[in-house]
Amino acid sequence: MSGNGTGIGASVKRKEDTRFLTGRGRYTDDVNLPGQLYGYILRSGMAHAKIGTVHTDAAKAAPGVHAVFTGKDMEGVGGIPTGWLIHSKDGSPMVEPGHPAMAIGKVRYVGDCVAIVVAETAEQAKAASNLIDVEREELPAVASIEAAEADGAPLVFDEAPGNVCYDWEVGDKAATDAAFENADHVVSIDVVNNRLIPNAIEPRAAIANYDPATGEYTLYTTSQNPHLVRLLLGAFVLGLPEHKLRIVAPDVGGGFGSKIPHYAEEAILTWTAGQLGRPVKWTCERIDAFKSDTHGRDHISTAKLALDADGKFLGLHVSTKANLGAYLSTFATCVPTYLYGILFAGPYTTPAVYCEVKSFFTNTVPVDALRGAGRPEATYLLERLVDKAAHELGLDRVAIRRQNFVREFPYQTPVALQYDMGDYDATLDLALDASDWAGFEGRRAESAARGKLRGIGISTFIEACGIAPSAVVGSLGARAGLYESGSVRVHPTGSVSVFTGTHSHGQGHETTFAQIVSDMLGVDFDAVDVVHGDSAKIPFGMGTYGSRSLAVGGTAIYLAVEKVIEKGKKIAAHLLEASVEDIEFENGSFTVAGTDRSTTLGEVALTAYVPHNYPEGLEPGLEETAFYDPLNFTFPAGTHVAEVEVDPDTGEVELVAVTGADDVGRVINPMIVAGQLHGGLAHGIGQALMEECVYQDDGQLETGSYMNYTMPRAADLPSFNINHNTTLCTHNPLGVKGVGEVGSIGVPPAVINAVIDALRPLGVHDMTMPATSQRVWQAIQQAQG
Amino acid sequence: MDEAVAALRGGGAKLIAGGQSLLPVMKLNLAAPSDLVSLAGVPGLADIADGGDSVTVGAMCTHAQVAGSTIVQTRIPALAAMADGIGDAQVRNAGTIGGSVAHNDPAADYPAACVALGATIVTDRREIHSDDFFQGMFMTPLEDDEVITAVRFPVASRAAYAKFANPASKYAVAGVMVAQRGDTVRVAVTGASGDGVFRVAAMEEALEACFCGESVAGIAVSSDGMLSDTAAGAEYRAHLVTVMAKRAAEACE
Questions:
Q1: Which residues from chain A sit within 8 angstroms of residue B168, using beta carbons?
Q2: Dihedral angle of Cα A631, A632, A633, A634, to the nearest 10 degrees
Q3: Which of A98, A377, A718, A719 is deepest in the core (most CB within 10 A)?
Q4: What is the pLDDT of residues A143-162, one digit of tens each?
């Protein structure tokens, strides 16, 4: 591993940026097929209603219209499945209602698919949709967790009494209760984790085609995991065998989790193309993206921490209510459970942890993974609670954290996870130093002289990435494996194609994976291309989410390269007339150990494809595939520090500084890692200070556009101070952990802790995300009576 | 101009200047004019003229033009600064003063500038003082076929605009222009009220008595009739009016 040039550890400029920055990216909406028609999805404007006949005659007669289909037309086609079965405390399976691709009998959220109009142009399809008359009877809606659990609340599904999907738990309740009985102090907190709208820059789109000659369907779609879409769409919805269903996710402009799920529109488009025998294209408008892309977060929690007299954590008890929305999206059910409850040890040695989660159906957009998916919710609660404990016990915020750090690895937590490696003191020290924590009081005084309130906040956190292993997640209810495939094809003249089942939609896989392969094989970086996103080209894949691509997908590629080298050694041994055991491979050359006799990878590759002088019994060709099923999660960790300045007149919070000290494992490309950290931090800061999805009581989406849903802009953010302390993951050969979600997990509690720190002198001790200027102003007003 | 006015007669046609308000409404199917009559080809509507004690800004001047105009920057710097804070760069390069004034959006910036500075709205057929022009949310005395040609701003002895912007849309939540001409002070507020721009007499009197930020810092405006949305409820808006008035006055000092 060279560590410089273009190898592992080098900040190589991204291969993919040449096309992205010059307008040559090929996104789903750029795909056009001969004879294509355009689909427009008519969505429910009511949050909850019985629907009767959907009158489509007028729309069908409109100019350019080829067809109109409704839920009734698709009746008999399978519903949209969910990917994880959760069991309640009493052992019963979760309530799993059907999810028809287009509504049948009832609509359950504003945005629910009601009909598709297919026309010659997108404008004709949209115009004709206005002519559809839906017989409907509005029903009272439940638009929040509070409304869903109220006595006598309207039911989203008749089969889900109390609108409850499941009532889950993890951890040892008896041991945790005992810890509280023996505690010197108990500190409690109530927190809300605000609902977010994902807002990838590229709206979702799809174009489907059916070839009657081969019976094959092709769907181009904006997906983070095309093979997963094939599995769900093929096996569960349309009943198509894999070899007759090709899914292509070409360039995708951001996902953040919102492009993980298999969406109803993908099923509707594919089915419609089959009905019409012509390609059908659909591109979501931004206004519809707000009400149809899966949303994220949306928890209400109460928690308590038991401590001894010195501030040592003895036990943690968490009760959470989670909003799942109107239907169970693909990973909706596991996000607030197995991606949440098992994170509550954090970086601390708390010996007893118990977490219970009750999840509710509501008449809102389905909720699924969003950058961090469960881990930001857990980290926010824990780090707010630890800060509160320090304040109530009169202990130093840093000291109480340090006092409770895990220091011996591997560490078995009381909530299932086993941390393989970390050094939490090192990242804490680094962050304190880099943020000049010690010099803060001077800065606070300087701000005060200008009439401003300055605050500093910290969060020390771990995350769990690269969810695994398959057998374990299977035993917990996952309906898919969580391994990854990688194929490495060395071409006859020595260039290399790499095929990965992960999907890049901003992460830079084409660069990072090429660095690994070129470094390992000693071939030129530009001689390696990475192929992804097409089920017809890739052996199999589980896609990209949960910061898994490098740790799981990169490892599969690593193992495939090792297989290539092993085979190459056999060919080289034959060419060099030596024994295989004596062949060493380094920097692209096979050498007989202790001699100057060598041959290059290029010669070996050519020999593999022109096998005139070749080892007996060895297959020609030089291409290997590896499937890697990880042994454990990876555990990135770190410390984030935020510093804010509050204007007491307006309540405005200015984020003055953000410092990160992160352990993300081995860094393949520091520039890409910095970019991932920056993006995650912006996302986390958006949640902490700006973003909030608001529903009205009747289920109308109040924040349905950029007029009132605030996304962070560059001008809202300071320059980020990023630092690394690396410990290597012990159970994958590259020692990598994951980085894509770090910012959105670690920084929100640091920001809110900073806001509270700024406001404490005024008597404010709590703050709800997002800390908007109005919310801060109101808190000041209340505290001052 | 005659051609444009003629085209506006006869029903469903709508005048388009920069299109920054009309096009979003059309995209949402909330308006569907039969024809769009563009003023882009009418000569002389994008000039800025220094009239000595006033500055006349052509209706088709973009916000960026007003912000960048040496005449405006020199004669009424507060107006140039206000224009430079409208929306974002794309909006400022497309949106026009005439379009903004004619639309009379309760969260637009220009109405506050017009009222505080005592501007006159010049149309193809008459002149209307801003006191008579802004008649409530989206309401003006303009006829359906009437076209604004310019806005004439008297030069103030001192003026400043302070805005608290909606963090998402960047429209004014509370925008206050304070302007003094001779002994007269005007304080005009946009963004806050459901009735559009309004003046605060108590603040004007206080500033006429003693022109400094502290004079208005203690003058509260009622939250009755204030707009209320996710970013700012009525009480918060009313509070922000006072804070912005103080800041505008301080900026004049």
A1: 690, 706-711
A2: -80
A3: A377
A4: 999 999 999 999 999 999 99
